[in-house]
Amino acid sequence: MKVWLLLGLLLVHEALQDVAGQHPPKNKRPKEQGENRIKPTNKKAKPKVPKTKDRDSADSTPKSQSIMMQAMDNGRFQKPGAVMSLTAGQTVELRCKGSRVEWSYPAYLDTFKDSRLSVKQNERYGQLTLANSTSADTGEFSCWGQLCNGYICRRDETRTGSTYIFFTEKGELFVPSTSYFDVVYLNPDRQAVVPCRVTVPSAKVTLHREFPAKEIPANGTDIVYDMKRGFVYLQPQSHHQGVVYCKAEAGGKSQISVKYQLLYVEVPSGPPSTTILASSNKVNGGDDISVLCTVLGEPDVEVEFRWIFPGQKDERPVTIQDTWRLIHQGLGHTTRISQSVITVEDFETIDAGYYICTAQNLRGQTTVATTVEFS
């Protein structure tokens, strides 16, 4: 009995194995060829961010880009070099990108309101055109974009452009001067420039003293030569004063510049040093009266005068005259004396009172006053 029971269990086990080979369970499916290989997952990989250097993160200031282009004869445009040399007589056209562009160019062109110069603002660019160029036009041409908030605008330092143009002209090695004799003031607290600028970049330029006749070396310590400016006295001294001129040599030719009078100045910088003086502080009716306002200052610093006087509200007729001249104070020192005098004729009651003078220069203003009374 036990034998038959064991034999029956064995037959049932074999039958179940056959069934499992022919009919897989519903929750499983037969594996396909290669299905045991590892499949790629659908996980999203985080993008790798390249590491930035410390100096890149520290230097976050925007870099300046040149916005200037030069129009060529073939209708194309190119970026101008920092320095260009062109033949005088050519027409130069420069353009700078931007809807608000400002320009700077040699002061010579502004001084004489030259009609050869045209500056226009178009929708997308500013345009500067210089026709019939001459050696006198040699200098720096620059432009910059404007950042505006309403009516207030400031210069955009990231959008600029500039080029220095030498206009070469036959027989002109030096940029022409408007006079045959110029004055250069030597101040101990700032540089002084003898403006011997050339029109040929390769020209050899030397500085000479007229008396005693000798060449003044540009040693790079006291005096240096800059072809865009001239001879620069870095620390002017009193012994530098005198009459000098420049000599240029290029292409086997030489030329002498105009002469320059170097005057040493030692006047403190600041608002005008002003005094006021009346011809008389007590005046009889019918007499004439004058009040003098005087300023002593640097030779190259201009002074403007303004007056307030008793008869001003009643439109009292007065005469005001402004003058200036240079005076030498010994030891080579030169000073500019500026004066303004107000004159009242036929003194009346309304003319009595305070006479107030205000003198102003680039560094400030000074007000002084005096009284004039009936005697």
Automatic annotation (TrEMBL):
Q: Where is the Ig-like domain?
A: 62-143, 272-375
Q: Which domain of life is it from?
A: Eukaryota
Q: Which SMART domains match?
A: IG
| Biased composition regions of type Basic residues, renumbered to the chain | 40-50
Q: Where is the signal peptide?
A: 1-21
The compartments listed are: Secreted
UniProt-listed InterPro entries:
Ig-like_dom, Ig-like_dom_sf, Ig-like_fold, Ig_sub, PDGFRL
Quaternary structure note: Forms a complex composed of PDGFRL, TNK2 and GRB2.
**Protein name per Swiss-Prot or TrEMBL:** Platelet-derived growth factor receptor-like protein
**Protein source organism:** Microtus ochrogaster
